[in-house]
Amino acid sequence: MNLTSRILAAGVFLLLAPVVRAADGRAPQEKAFDRDVKPFLKQYCVRCHNAEKMKSGIRVDHLQAALDDPQLRLWENLRKQIGEAAMPPEDEAQPTDAQRKRMVEWIDLALQEARLRPVPKNGLVRRLTVAQYRNTLRELLLLDEELTEVLPPDAVSRDGFVNNKETLQLSPLLLEAYLDIADKALKRCIVDPKSKPTIQNFRVDLGDGINVHPCPDKLILGADSLLLNNADFEVTQLKPAKPFDFNPFVMRTKYRFIEGYRGNDTVRGWRDFDSIYHAVYACMRGNHGYPKGRAYETVPRGLLLRPAIPSTEIFGVDSTYGPRANFKIAVRELPDHGRFRVTVTAAKYNDGLLLDPGAASQPDDGTNALVCRNLKTPQTITVKQAGIYQVDVYSAQKNKPTDLTLSLGERQFTNTLKQPAFVVVRLPAGPLDVNARCTAGVSVDRVVFTPLAESRDIAQRFAAFEKRSPLMGVHMGFRRDCGSTLAPVGTAQTVSSEKLSRYVFEGSLRNFPNPDVEKDNVNYLAGIREIGVRSEYTDGRDRPRLLIRSVEFEGPYYETWPPPSHRNIFLDADPKDNPIAHGQKILRAFAARAYRRPIAQEEETALTTVFKNSLDRGNSFQESVKEALQVVLASPQFLFLIENSRTPEAEPLDDYELASKLSYFLWNGPPDDTTLKLAEAGSLRKNLDVEIDRMVGHPKFARFTAEFASQWLGLDKFQVLEPDRKRFPKLTRHARAHLRQEPIHFLQHLMRNNLPARNLIESDFVMANEATADYYELVGKTESGFEFVPIQHGRSDLGGLLSQAAILAGLSDGREANPVKRGAWLARKIIAEPPDDPPPNVPTLKEDTRMLTLRQRLERHRNQPGCAQCHAKIDPWGVPFEEYDAGGRFKRKPPDARSTLPDKAEVAGVADLKRYLANDRIDQVAFSVLKQLTTYATGRSLTYRELEQLKKDGAKLKAKGYRMKDMIQFVVHSPMFLEK
Amino acid sequence: MNTSFRIDRRAFLKGLGGVSLALPVLDAMGADVTDKIPRRFCAIYTANGMSLPQTAHKIDEWSWFPRAENKGEFVFGKSTEPLAPFRKQISFMGGLYHPSGPKSDPHVCSDMWLTGAPLHNPKPGTYNSVGLDQVVALHTKQFCRQPSLVLSIDAGTGFLSRTGTISYSLEGRPIPAENNPRRIFDRLFRGDRASLTAERDKLKQRIKLVDAVAQNARALHRRLGKSDRERMDQYLTSLDEVEARLIASERWIDVPLKKQDYSHLNLKVTNEGEPGEYYRNMFDLIALAFDADITRSVAFMLNREDGMGISDTFPLKLGLSRTHHNLSHANDKNGQMEFAKYDLFLSKQLAHFFDRLTHYKDRDGSVLDNTIVLFGSGASTTHNSRNLPTLIAGGRAMGLEHGTYWRNGETRMSNVYLSILRSLGIEKDSFADSTGTLSKSIFRRV
To answer: For residues A357 and A418, is the Cβ–Cβ distance under 8 A?
Structure first.
């Protein structure tokens, strides 16, 4: 029997002994601590593990007889080190077996007592996180303007979450910011109902030659400004129809500038301008060229756009000006703030599929084919049978490169003619006008239309192509001399109709980049806003072009006056009748919504006093209400989530506290009327599961998945990743933006559909959109645009969280994968066996390890005293992931990734590791999810006891396979959530 | 901070009907202001980089960065010679760069200089991030009348990417700069009654608001029972601190300005006139503002990138043959020499500024000893965003040790900025993309 097991045997007996207190009120173990433990620590441990030195990040000089909760893990570790005689190190003075035994016995007893010790339950008081504050303010005030940028980001707790009550600190600076934001927000919400708003409304129409009175000046907007021809766009200022009086804003057309741009340089000298076309431009400035066809063309019906291929991220000649096919309305004046609406009249173009370089022309034997000649003038042919045709164009000067614009009826296709195979189109039966125009003195000999059987590859490619629709995105921002700074307005919309239709995009002006130019600016190029309209790029697949007929702007956009944000505060009664009573009513209603519960008399009095004092000082009714509301918005009742405890015993949350706790958990925002009504009726507890279902199904649940997934899985690391562009050319900013969303959509899918937790490890589907599917080379499996949908991947290297690029690449440095980081991540996040923190001053490995393989290096690491302890628990989890590169993709030639896990199980690689986790360790995985969920839901770190309890109770969910929504329900029903 | 003391004193002040002058005025601002010597920061930017002539031209002595050594000490080049009297008050800093610099369009280097923001890949919906001077202002504003002073050769903001200001707010928005000495003087030193009254009303209003918030919060505090009180206590303490700062600001309005000699100022100058005279007067104003503790954070943009603004023509006014931006592109010997002569012109202005700051005294030494001056450009020479010419002056009372040409391979500018913040006593953990402080450099207390 070795020492440890002997001690364990003794421990069992001791654990059963009741805890007695001596007459002097000191528990026996306190005396034993002074007698045995303290001298032991002092003699053998403290020299290296003190506050100053903290070898391996450990100090023991501060340990007390009462085992504080945060120190339980340290004590466990101590017990192990001493029991297994791992410490003190061999070359140091050693304690006797008896001393060790006494230590271990004492620690066991003390740990046991500490774990059983009831923790006083004092209701939690948590500050709202920045995101929660933002959501709350927005919903309370019906104001979607972003005012919280001034707030510093919340700190991240040890558990990885930002909503932990310990890390949510307050400071004078933060309070000042809250006061400022309250002031600004209320100023934005409250209007003078008697005033008339000013509304700007204009439309830009687009089309080949549509402006019959084009601006006679040569327009130029800096270097490479690429403006549409003056005749191809027309600006009209409009007056929208509104059910209230307003002043239409008239754009300034007279300007005087001293600084301008001509030729290729900045020029100085005063010049006068007088035209709307020096105030509004239609601009295509972006990167030049397009892989196939033209980035844009104007046709009589409008402007045709191909998908906007993103530019590379690093500054270079070819990446300066933004994506290819980068259409923008550039405009000198837009309102400073308020909501706006951009309406684009657009259609899907009845397009043809341009053929790739190297595509074969159809046999030119005349059978079935229609041949059109004499193309010096437009010709008309008759298509007998409707269907898919390949169009081959034969140049009269075979080897002379030329640009060809081919018109078929109203449709137009332009490309460089390098080969006869040109385009595949669907043609209706009947007469067809054909026109072919070339550049550089080239003429067309003949155009051959060959019908394609539907079964042919190229016809099928065309059929898939014509089913696709452009995704239209609107962007708002400003022009820089070197490109644009734009942000998307809402999400892209699918333009699936070939009929011109109106597509509406709305946003709040201050949420978009703004050039902030001074009023008396004297530079022609300064202070120019931009409204971008694009056909969005997903992965470069062929897609019918987007046809834009017009772009209309209206802002500030009001449907009513005063706007809802105002009426929401002032309700509808007339204050003239009884200003005090009306003011009180307003304050009561507002404060109740802000505090998320009915307000107490004392609170009402405090607010009424502010309001009355303000009236007494001669302020207007509105100003006085505003002052009181500002108090509400800076008060702890609003800024904090408060659980009111009467005793140190556990008490049930009251219904309003529960309503808030639930909605800040599942929506990261305030409860809505439905939940509050249940709370008011006292029936929220009875309806918990119904409410959970409703909340999980609601769009606001996406806020939970985004927050929770990002923080649990540490996605911020991926966010800030700077990948090596040469090694990972596909890990572009565009790909990263979408890959970043993958774990979030994945988790949301599992939760909404209540799927078993094993999917986290191993799933036969991935959630993908066209951009991420392209990254994983899932060719031809998606047609969903930017929407994430489940697709069966049929591959062994995909599925589950562990092989998602956002996670694996995030745990690399952008060049090399890091198995240690990946291992630590898995241990911490997925199986809840967190390694200890790394010591403060990690020593470098002594020998030169550059020549060693990774496996050898890790072994060295594990054999190094001081490193071994932790790395033995980390590295083996990371080694299998060597099959994936630093960009998170399965390597073409995966290396040997066999690993012996800390629990001695052997796995051959990630697929094997997943199988092992999903089958043999699923309890541990489920516990990890429950631990993360509960920590997040309660906004605090869990105690040792709670974790033990969670492990035990959570096992009940196993029968149904640890389903994800079941786990949410389990957490909400647990005392950790329901009690305060 | 003792809560009840604050409140009692407020009550006391109110009891006197707001007759605050009965108290020693500075007392209201707490020991923070009276005991400590002001710590100040001044950032001075010059666009287009400095002349670093090609060695083939054999005019190394015209390099802005020192290229020679003598007995272990760097030798001032011809274009920095006017700074020689301040050797023990200045350091040249080599190898500095913003990692985001080379990734971004080189013309945005002035936008990035004080912020280090990833302008090539900004956070969605934003453009820039907070600048160093505004972080300083945030932490010093409660001690002085003006959080910061933002100056530039051209008024306003210019336009982003060709900016006319180097100062960016907490939200990353450009702060419009002032450029007219007369107007600056009137605003800082001749505050008119109407605007003072308006400001006082605003502060009084804010104090009332904070009082009301505090009352409301205390009502809640009493009801909390056994709930966790730690956050509520923190809230109330923070609120007291906010109130104390507001009271201090309000008091400032009544504190008479320090008596100073303004006779050397020529407030008629504008940026249209003689460049040297204009810069000297602007620097005089900054020095006066520091001396009177009107502000502790100043940002001054001497000229603009890419041929923008009036300053592009200054070399011509000084008898050189090309504009500033064109000189920065010069590869020929004569052009690089002329570019250096413009550097020489700037060095003279800077020397004048250091002279002024040495002339004014704090309790424990010169104003320069209590001011960290950061002078430099966002490009080393012509759009090269590595090895940014940087000179740091002053701050000896904050642990800065000067007299060297410091280099340590490539060093993040943000690490210098974090070191500046720490030296100023602003205990930030990070700034922009900083990875730490420069503890073994000219900064000895970071």
So the answer is: yes
Q: Which B residues 130-149 touch A at CB under 8 Å?
A: 138
Instruction: Give pLDDT tens digits for A238-267.
Output: 999 999 999 999 999 999 998 887 755 677
ipTM of this complex prediction, to 2 decimal places: 0.81
Residues of B in contact with A125 (CB under 8 A): 224, 227-232
Q: Which residue shows structure tokens 């005090």? A: A580
Amino acid identity, position A364? D
CB distance B443 to B419 below 8 Å = yes
Architecture of domain A353-467: Sandwich (2.60)
What crossing angle do the helices spanning A922-938 and A910-919 adopt, rounded to 10°? Answer: 80
Which runs of E-coded beta strand occur in A738-838? Answer: 765-768, 789-792
Greatest C-alpha distance within chain A? 117
Give the residues across from A900 on adjacent strands.
A906
Amino acid type, B333? K
Structural tokens at position A100 = 């060790």
CATH of the domain at B144: 3.40.720
**Which residue in chain A has the smallest CA separation from B123?**
A487
Considering only alpha carbons, which residue of chain B is nearest residue A636? B217
Instruction: Looking at the complex, report in whole angstroms how far the Cα of residue B83 sits from the nearest Cα belonging to chain A.
Output: 33
pTM, full prediction: 0.82
Residue B121, chain A, CB below 8 Å: the answer is: yes
* B247 shares a domain with B234: yes
Which one of A258, A270, A481 makes the best mutation probe of the B interface by having the most chain B beta carbons within 10 Å? A481
What are the residue boundaries of the structural domains of chain A, listed by start?
A: 3-113, 118-193+564-651, 198-349+470-555, 353-467, 702-920
B45 at A interface, C-beta within 8 A = no
The answer for residues whose C-beta is within 8 angstroms of residue A975's C-beta and 6 or more apart is A650
B191 at A interface, C-beta within 8 A: no
Q: Which of A130, A165, A259 to mutate to test the interface with B (most CBs of B within 10 A)?
A: A259
Most distant CA pair in chain B: distance in Å?
80
In tens, the pLDDT along A657-710 reads 999 999 999 999 999 999 999 999 999 999 999 999 999 999 999 999 999 999
| Locus of tokens 């006139």 | B273
Domain residue limits at B245: 1-35+190-266
Residue of B126, B131, B216 whose CA lies nearest to B170: B131
Tally the residues of chain A.
Answer: 980
Both B306 and B205 in a single domain?
no
Judgement on whether residues B130 and B155 belong to the same structural domain of the protein: yes
Q: B229 vs chain A: nearest CA distance in angstroms? A: 7
If asked whether residues B107 and B251 sit together in one domain, one would say no
- Do B24 and B57 share a structural domain? no
Distance of CA A528 to the CA centre of its chain: 29
Tell me which of B266, B298, B320 is where a domain ends: B266
Radius of gyration of chain B (CA): 23
Last residue of a domain, one of B266, B288, B312: B266
Structure tokens of A877? 């989890």
Nearest-by-Cβ selection for B232 from A125, A485, A525: A125
Dihedral sign for Cα A142, A143, A144, A150, please: negative
Q: CA geometry: angle at A702 spanning A696 and A705, to 5°?
A: 90
Cβ-defined contact of B159 to A607 (cutoff 8 Å): no
Check CB contact under 8 Å for B219 and A602: yes
* Range among A273-277, A576-580, B161-165 rated most confident: A273-277
pLDDT tens digits, B8-36: 333 333 333 333 333 333 444 555 555 67
Could you tell me if residue A752 is left (phi over 0), alpha (psi between -120 and 50 degrees) or otherwise beta? alpha
In a domain, B185, yes or no: no
Q: B193 CB near a chain A CB, below 8 Å?
A: no
The alpha-carbon gap from A635 to the nearest alpha carbon of chain B, in Å, equals 6
φ/ψ bin of A561: left (φ > 0), alpha (ψ from -120 to 50), beta (otherwise)? beta
